[in-house]
Amino acid sequence: MNLLISLGVGLLTLGTPGDARVHAGVHYGPGARERMDVYAPRRTEPHTPVVVFFYGGSWQSGDRSLYQFVGRSLASRGIVAVIPDYRLYPEVRYPEFLRDGASAVAYARLHARDWGGDPDRLFLAGHSAGAYNAMMLATDKRWLGEVGLVPNHDVAGVIGLAGPYDFLPLRDPILKTIFGPPDTLPATQPIHHLDGATPPMRLLAGDGDTVVDPGNSTRMAAAVNGQGGAAQVKIYAGLGHISLLTAISGPFRRRAPVLDDMVSFVRGGAPSISAAVRPTRSPIADTIGATP
Amino acid sequence: MARFHPAEDVLLDYAAGALHVGARLVVSTHLASCEVCRATTNLADAVGGALLDDLRPSSLSADALALALARIERPAPPSAPSFKGPHDWIRVPDEVANAYRSRRRWAAPGVWVAPVTSNSDGSRSYLLRVGAGMSVPLHTHTGDEMVLVLKGGYSDGGRLHHPGDFALNDASINHNPRVLADGECVCLIAADDTLVPLSWVGRLFQPLVRI
Q1: B124-130 and B111-118: which strand pairing?
Q2: Does B46 contact A164 at a Cβ distance shorter than 8 Å?
Q3: What is the full DSSP assignment across chain A?
Q4: B206 or A72: which carries more pLDDT confidence?
């Protein structure tokens, strides 16, 4: 099954130079799902950044082998990309997938130098449910705290792709099971863990996303900035939940500069303002670059 | 290589098992010949419908069991050409090939239809063949209609549709597609229309035929 799926997305890895050194199936924990693939650029610099990318799948599905195109694309831009699996429902529920994520981050920080990366330039990123995981690790200090890390000290920044950060009330019965009883639900929301000391973040989404409302990104950014944090948001015109992700891959890169905008954030630049963003969507477009 | 593809919403619905059987057949037939949409759909399958639906109050989240069952029943896109008809057909699944072989019936001069699937909710899929150069009189739709060109081509609103091209027509569309002059056009069509019987497809052409 996984082989078929891998073949089915093989197209996505086209057009990306195969010059990454791949460390496949690295164990960051004892379980079968506690493994990660690492894509390291063949040429690294003294301060090569490391991005831990969490894929999505409603906390119910996903496999790191599908996301080679993300790893190779980032590595082709001189970034060490770490793509961990993490345990899923029904094997686990909230917050166990966050604990797996924290273990993966701790492992990546500990071993960054082995891959040519700089542990002090460690970024978290994710798509969809994975963006939630990345954001929770960066905002709720408890999870990284359990592995001896502090978000605003050990995480250089967060990139969210089409992430849910503020999605109550839950309607789906499976999500209700995953996230637990109503009285503890507010604590599961990244937007409720802001204190002005969160790492800087760049939130990317497509205005055609019908799975996760792009309002999650705009609300989160507004809340972070309202607390004195540094959040940038960019909404691409015409991209949906999946096409935001596939735009990272070579064959689809012309659709929108998603990869450029991820890389420029990691490298400390401004998001590229391109034709992909409708200037007329002022309430959203105006927020681009409005914050540090 | 197709130029017109299903929108991402359609592929997400397909991945989530939320399309009726006829629409599923049209999309899977397109996927069999379109690597780009196949990659997107496989990724959509992995990412899931997410069901994080403050924007999408659809039936997707209504019944998790039905959704799970639909996922199980969803046929995999055909991976190999199971039927190659006359010259320039795209590959089609067996049930489409079978309908072509055994269920064609003339509906009007130059026009045949062949039912492929029908559902208790009134949705259905069928093959429609229209002769070279013929046009379908101006019409609209009461429900969603998916059209996939299997052979030949037609023009619609200045766009040329060729084998593999996908179109979604709904009530907002008023059109009179015309088959290209150089040969017959065969399309696989899925309609969720519960009102119009298939025999009307032939009747639609009657005014033209009488000219």
Answers
A1: antiparallel
A2: no
A3: -HHHHHHHTGGGGTTS-S-EEEEEEEESSSSTT-EEEEEEESS--TT--EEEEE--STTT---GGGGHHHHHHHHHTT-EEEEE----TTT--TTHHHHHHHHHHHHHHHHGGGGT--GGGEEEEEETHHHHHHHHHHH-HHHHHTTT--HHHH--EEEEES--SS-PSP--HHHHHHH--GGGGGGG-GGGS--S-PPPEEEEEETT-SSS-THHHHHHHHHHHHTT--EEEEEETT--TTHHHHTTSGGGGGG--HHHHHHHHHTT-PPP--TTS-TT-HHHHTTTTS--
A4: A72
Percent of chain A with pLDDT over 90: 79
pLDDT in tens, B136-155: 888 878 788 999 999 999 99
Task: Name the pairing type of β-strands A35-41 and A20-27.
Answer: antiparallel
A174 touches chain B (CB under 8 A): yes
How far A264 CA sits from the closest chain B CA (Å)?
Answer: 25
Predicted pLDDT at B120 = 87
Residue B86 placed within a domain? no
Q: Which residue has the tokens 């091209």?
A: B165
With contacts defined as CB-CB under 8 Å, which chain B residues touch A175?
A: 51-52
Mean pLDDT of A88-92: 97
**What residue ranges in B66-123 does DSSP mark as E strands?**
105-108, 111-118
Q: B9, B10, B38, B51: best mutation site toward chain A, by most A Cβ within 10 Å?
A: B51
Q: Is A56 on the interface with B (CB under 8 A)?
A: yes
Give the single-character DSSP code of B175.
B
Tell me how far apart the alpha carbons of residues A120 and A203 are, in angstroms, rounded to a whole number. 21
Question: Measured in Å, how far apart are chain A's first and last C-alpha atoms?
Answer: 44
Contact A175 B55 (CB under 8 A): no
The count of CB pairs under 8 A between chains A and B is: 115
Residue A259: name the closest of A127, A129, A133 by CA.
A127
CATH number at residue B199: 2.60.120.10
Q: Mark out the alpha helices in chain B (DSSP H runs).
A: 8-15, 21-32, 35-47, 64-73, 94-102, 199-204, 206-210
> What ipTM did this prediction achieve?
0.79
Query: In A101-137, which positions are buried (b, 16+ CB within 10 angstroms) versus exposed (e)?
Result: bbbbbbbbbebbeebbbbeebbbbbbbbbbbbbbbbb
Residue of A nearest to B40 (CA): A242
Domain carrying residue B28: 8-73
For the segment(s) A2-285, the CATH number from 3.50.50.60, 3.40.50.2000, 3.10.310.30, 3.40.50.1820 is 3.40.50.1820
Q: How confident is the model at residue A67 (pLDDT cuts 50, 70, 90)?
A: very high
Whole-model pTM?
Answer: 0.83
